[in-house]
Amino acid sequence: MKAATLSAVLIFFLAASVSAQTDEEKKFLYREVPDVSIQLLNRRASLLAFCKEEPTIISLAYSRCAGICYPFLLTLRDNLAEAEKEEKKFRVLIISFDEKDTQENMQTMAGAIHPQNTSRWFFGTIERSQIKTFTQAVGFTFTLDSLSGQLNHPPIVIGVNGDGTIVRIVKKFDISNNELWQVYHEIEDEFVPFYKENIATSISCFTYDSRKGKFIVSWGMLLLYTPAILVAILVWRIFSIKKIAGVQK
Amino acid sequence: MEQTFFSEPIQNKGIRNTTLVWFSLSLVLFLVPAAFGFLMRSIQGNLLQDSHHLFYHFLTSHGLLMVGIWFTSAMALLTFSLSKYVKPRVGMYIVSLSLIVVGALMSLWAVFIGDMATGWYFLYPLPMRIGTATGRIVFLSSIGVLGVGWLLWSIDLLLAIAKKYTLPETLGWHYIFGESGREVPPIIMIAVVSLIAIIVCILIAVILLLLYLLEIASSVVNDALLMKNLVFVFGHTVANMNLYLVIAVFYEYFPKFGGGEFKNGRMLAIVWNSVLGIVLFAYFHHLYMDFIQPTVVQYIGQFASYGAGVAAATFTIFSVLAFVSTHKMNWNFSSLLLFISVAMWTIGGVAALIDATIPVNFKMHNTLWVPAHFHTYYFTGAATMILSFMWTIACEVSGAGEQPWMKKFLLPLLLAGASGFLLMFYFGGLHSIPRRYEVYPVELSEGTAYAKAAAYSILLFFAGYIVFMGMVLKRFLRGMKT
Amino acid sequence: MKLQTTIFVIWIISTVIVIAAFVVVYLHSKVKPSSITYEIINSRRFKFFYIVVILFLALFFVALSYTPYTREGKADEIIGVKARMFSFVLTKDTVDCGKLIEFRVAAEDVTHGFGMYDSAGTLLGQVQAMPGYINRLRIQFDTPGKYNIFCLEYCGSQHHQMKTSLIVK
Ligand code: HEM
Ligand SMILES: [Cu+2]
Ligand SMILES: [Cu+2]
């Protein structure tokens, strides 16, 4: 139990520190995905051309990862399975940003994730010389841990609509279902009326349930209208003081 | 003087002298933000080159001081007038006024020395990004001090009223439900409605300030949309209530110029009770251009704004016109000025309602149309009403009447100056000139010419105002001695 | 006629009506009280009230159908806008005439305003740029030319210099 709380707190702080990057993220939005060439399990393709075929969700991962990659991809898989039930039609492209990854590695990864709807999931690598072009274009950074040889990185979800334009980038440790659903809506050009960036703010007036498409009133609204109630009580108290004798005719 | 409107309040020496001292102070103090206003138009009109870098400081200080001064004067006028019926405490009156003076001085310091040129509604997170650290604290504290001053005062007035009337009585519920009961003058009812709304928005300001302090003291980041909602419930409502405070007094005294009175009644009570219900929702019109605010909320904003307009048109304005056309009015400087300010309030109100229409706001929001309409009903409306009551009071306390040239020359001069100044704002709105621009870009250079014309008009107004101020101050001084 | 002119004309007409009403009433107050008393006029208040209410309700519903709020449907092109002290960054600065453009407006530091002006200096529409949120503004450009974007929310000492432009081909 303690460990859970502790990790929750940790995740919170990590999230807070990562979310400071959202300003950076914005730089990479609403531009076309870079036209790098990718090697999928069964064909070579241009990323831009691939994305223009259908809305695409791109995530970056690498096969040797002992950290976040696999758990994250599994969550993504389950979440997407639900989205598919609601007839969301988009592709998922998992590409490696590790120079060492080969076709076989990605094949193994595909086996490990084992998505239900294989025809919509694609695994592949980026042309080695173009990895940097791609990661820079979406503002994705990672560091090499020289001891373990692991690459430290946050999970990332890049939403690309049918025009090949990047419309959402979510990049942090605790991507919520709600945020994923916003990405699903967004890439299919569905209207999302509420559009809040991932900045850890104190309290707000509303939140938005992207899955149900509903506004949820949150604590901030209470702040707006509690004073009215407080004052009602206060005024009631004020007026219950003793009247001056004689004036009450 | 044959007319004595304020004979009872004048008898109460404590209330009278405190009011006169504040009125004198405010007449002089008004010159400071008014001069800032003139300087702003001069800078925009390229008449002044040296103090360019101070434009936004002038802007912020002008807005804060003007709202502060006129709100306080409206409260003072109400306190003075109410003392005919109830007994506000002089001690609390003095304490509140002192707090307000301190708050105003602090805000001046924060803006000019602390560099907090945030605009009068200090939209979050701007105050966190500009100015010095001390300036920020002093700025926020100045709002706090003003708030406390107004809060204590409002509570004291309510207490004074509560000593005589019950809550349902003051809200006129016996009129609404057709029960028999004591007669409650409209001034009491409108005052209670306004004071309640004022206390609500002061509490909201407290929450706003606490959120700021939280952010300054810790690493919490506030939500910009929430902060904007909070600041406008406060800012919009305070400015609106300023008018209602004056209207309360207006209901009591204006009909006396025709030898009649506005009686309280069922419809009036219904209207003011519904005002209490909608007044906290109209502020949403300040957030029309925040498309992420849920659309229903925007519609409520437009509905509530229109509602306030309907209430004003069909009650206050209708009553004034109906009354004047059926009574033989004593048209002196005061009553004429009052009548004109009702017209100005109406004209500004129409412009405001137009701007409170969402598709119009899309093309007029934050253009000069905004200062155009709020100056019309605030400056030539509410503030002018207060000035005209000051004149009546000045004449009564001193026993000195008015001179015939005041009606013939002074009034037209003031009116011409003020109207010229206002009209230039309206022209600016017509030409999409943004508000709050130190210098107009070449693409919008019409703005510069209008600003220049406005600056000259302001000088006309000043000429008249100085004369008026001198005459009032002289009479106040004489009145305080007796 | 552009909306601003229409609005101005409406306002001028209302102002003239208001002034005329006040002047007429003023002149009336100088003559001897006539047979119409305050009570009689007061009894007509309801008529006036209903007229005003109907007028406002009509205006209200008309206005609702012209709001600028983005609803369903897809724009032809998305342009990202980032506002910061004291400049705008657009992901594209040329667009095609006739296309429905959706601006997704975000702010980096403080609240700014995104105001789109045509080459004659008329404000076509605007939206706020608030930190933490993305506002969407849809505009269809029907005439080619240079459009200017000015900041329409006070954002600090260089607020009046915060601008950029967009070419419509
Ligand atoms: C001598 C009379 C006055 C003059 C010359 C004057 C002038 C101005 C000017 C030039 C501006 C800036 C317009 C812009 O955005 O470009 C302004 C803003 C403002 N004025 Fe006045 N004004 C006067 C009276 C008043 C009065 C009586 C009030 C209130 C009771 C008032 C309240 C305000 C407010 C709240 C602002 C907005 C400040 C802001 O944008 O932060 N003014 N005024
Ligand atoms: Cu800006
Ligand atoms: Cu700006």
What's the layout of helices and strands?
The complex is a heterotrimer of chains A (249), B (482) and C (169).
Chain A: H1 2-19, H2 22-26, E1 37-40, E2 44-46, H3 47-53, E3 56-61, H4 69-85, E4 91-96, H5 103-113, E5 121-126, H6 131-138, E6 143-144, E7 151-152, E8 156-160, E9 166-171, H7 177-187, E10 206-209, E11 214-217, H8 219-239
Parallel strand pairs in A: 3-4, 4-5
Antiparallel strand pairs in A: 1-2, 1-5, 3-8, 6-7, 8-9, 10-11
Chain B: H1 7-11, H2 13-29, H3 31-44, H4 55-82, H5 90-112, H6 126-129, H7 133-162, H8 167-170, H9 173-176, H10 186-217, H11 224-253, H12 266-278, H13 295-326, H14 333-355, H15 358-364, H16 369-398, H17 404-430, H18 446-481
Helix pairs in contact in B: 2-4, 2-5, 2-18, 3-4, 3-18, 4-5, 4-7, 4-11, 4-16, 5-7, 7-10, 10-11, 10-12, 11-16, 12-13, 13-14, 14-16, 16-17, 16-18, 17-18
Chain C: H1 3-30, H2 38-43, H3 45-64, E1 77-84, E2 87-90, E3 94-95, E4 100-107, E5 112-117, E6 123-129, E7 135-140, E8 145-150, E9 163-168
Parallel strand pairs in C: 1-4, 3-9
Antiparallel strand pairs in C: 1-2, 4-7, 5-6, 5-8, 8-9
The structure holds protoporphyrin IX containing FE and copper (II) ion (2 copies).
Compute the CA-based radius of gyration of chain C.
23 Å
Radius of gyration of chain B: 22 Å
State the end-to-end distance of chain C.
24 Å
Please state the structural category of chain C. alpha+beta
Give the rounded overall mean pLDDT of chain C: 90
Separation, N- and C-terminal Cα atoms of chain B: 16 Å
Percent of residues in helices of chain B: over 70%
Low-pLDDT sequence parts of chain C: none
- Which spans of chain B of ≥5 residues are poorly predicted at pLDDT below 50? none
Number of domains of chain B: 1
By CATH, the superfamily of the largest domain in chain C comes out as: Cupredoxins -  blue copper proteins
Find the CATH superfamily of chain B. Cytochrome c oxidase-like, subunit I domain
Give structural attributes.
heterotrimer; A: Glutaredoxin; two-stranded antiparallel sheet; 11 strands; C: alpha+beta; 2 domains; 5-stranded mixed β-sheet; 9 strands; binds protoporphyrin IX containing FE; binds copper (II) ion
